[in-house]
Design goal:
alpha+beta, Nuclear Transport Factor 2, Chain: A, 2 domains, five-stranded mixed sheet, 11 helices, 7 strands, globular
Length: about 290
Amino acid sequence: MQQVLSQMLSKYQIRDIDDKKNAIKEIVQEVVLCGLSRGGFFREAAFYGGTALRIFYGLDRFSEDLDFSLVSQNPDFDLTKYFSYIENETKSLGLNFSVSEKEKTIDSNVKSAFLKGNTKEHILIFYEESNDTNIINKEEVIKVKFEVDVNPPSGATYETKFGLLPSPYQVRLYDMPSLFAGKIHACLCRNWRTRVKGRDFYDYVFFLSMGAKVNLVNLKAKLVQSKYIAEDYNLTIENLKTLLNERFSNMDFAQAREDVLPFVRDKSKLDLWSKEFFIEITKQLQ
């Protein structure tokens, strides 16, 4: 049990208490995936988003949430039937987390749940000789959110990936073009209060650096569902570049940098962020 946690912790460079908390959250994310895999969740659903990029493609930023999409639309999908598998997986490692479904206050296609555990308790489990627990409020909670889109747009394509820790597990994952489609949709459409979610644009740069191609069929379905474009809009790569460049031309890059700063170690990667930078790199979109 402790050996598995030590193995998972060994890949982290821990500098301070925030690094400790983030490492625990990231490890717990992988424990959730393992539990969902045991429960057969990935027969119905696929993994996507920033955390999927971090775990399976090496994205170098912290990602808070786990995002999933059903393979086929099912508004009656019961997320709670997988909670016991997640809790059992955490308990098998000596961790004390509970799962609860988030009550919906508005009608949406997303079902959400939270995995929660006491921060101080788990700092002591993961870092047995930790001497900084006195600065942690005894009521502070480590929280991992996961969401499932029960009405996914059509056109996504998938691949199978495997993880080895905490125990070998298998996931259905959006393939790289479909992951990129989801990220471009977020860059164009995400409404995050009044602020820009810079993490989306950080990931956009990551996709381009990987030479990723875009699943235009899936992206169009997402944009139509969001009412960003009409059904008869001809979504070509050149038209997509125009849509993105319009977004970049009206974007507050100071806000975008501020949003992503807490999630990255190498802050210098944000130094070039500007309208001109994003428009220029978008020429590489394929």
